[in-house]
Specification:
The chain is an alpha/beta fold and about 240 residues long. About 35% of the residues lie in helices and about 25% in strands. The protein binds adenosine-5'-triphosphate. InterPro entries: AAA+_ATPase, ABC_transporter-like_ATP-bd, P-loop_NTPase.
Length: about 240
């Protein structure tokens, strides 16, 4: 079977909540085997876009393709995601939380130990996840998303609460993941981090995709990525 060029395509995607249109005509192209960074200020529409891709929200118009096929629920079996913070049992440890998910997904027991090591939670012991720091919760969320080794990983602001070592480890992990041919889509408002991590970026502002393409191209003609980003995200503001 041929691998499609794009793991995700959104086709004129739009979403309205009541009278407010928060996503306007968004055509996202997320290349297979690359890290795509969806950038934008608070309220730009990043989480809404990810929710639409995952089928947690219904588009008002437009559509989503996953792996070269029109969106279907069963295609989500190839997707791992973390959105709106981790969904976990607060009274269970990291290992127990992962075990519950692994069992529900019919995975072998050793996947839990490997995942704990992978996300830096092997030393978390029996501590209840409800008492984790924000960074530990982010690590657990990443672990849950990675459990099935999905072809496509979708993470909403995965750096939140991570310390510098955690951010470094996450970056290496996501780069390696894409290096193995898998696709990663992350949302972020941390320009510097996306600069170090992403192959391709999309800049959302006011629900509109203002730029999509390689970082270098966005930066061309500006002194820094920051200058280019501010130009895009301030242009058109009242
Ligand atoms: N369920 C909802 N009902 C009404 N408005 C909503 C709803 N969800 C999101 N919005 C609005 O849609 C817009 C985009 O929100 P969204 O959470 O997608 O932005 P974001 O880019 O992820 O922001 P942040 O970086 O702050 O997480 C905001 O104006 C928000 O208030």
């Amino acid at each position: 079977m041929n691998t499609p060029d794009f793991a995700i395509i959104t086709d004129h995607l739009a979403k309205r909540f009541g009278k407010a249109t928060v996503i306007h005509d968004v055509n996202l192209h997320v290349p297979t085997g690359q890290v795509y960074g969806l950038l934008g200020p608070n309220g730009a529409g990043k989480s809404t876009t990810l929710g639409l891709i995952l089928g947690l929200l219904q588009p008002t118009s437009g559509g989503v393709e996953l792996f070269g096929q029109p969106w279907r629920r069963d295609l989500l079996g190839r997707v791992g995601a973390s959105l709106n913070g981790p969904a976990f049992y607060g009274h269970l440890s990291a290992a127990e939380n992962l075990e519950v998910h692994a069992r529900l997904l019919g995975l072998k027991a050793d996947v839990v130990r490997r995942t704990l090591e992978r996300v830096g939670l092997a030393g978390a012991g029996g501590k209840a996840a409800g008492q984790f720091s924000t960074g530990m919760k982010s690590r657990l969320a990443l672990g849950m998303a990675l459990l099935t080794e999905p072809d496509l990983l979708i993470l909403d602001e995965p750096q939140n609460g991570l310390d510098p070592e955690g951010i470094y480890a996450l970056r290496q992990q996501l780069r390696d993941y894409a290096g193995a041919g898998k696709t990663v889509l992350i949302s972020s408002h941390q320009l510097g981090e996306v600069q170090q991590l992403a192959d391709v970026i999309g800049v959302l502002h006011g629900g509109t995709l203002r730029y999509q393409g390689p970082l270098a191209q966005l930066q061309a003609g500006y002194d820094s990525l920051e200058d280019a980003y501010f130009h895009l995200t301030r242009a058109g503001q009242a």
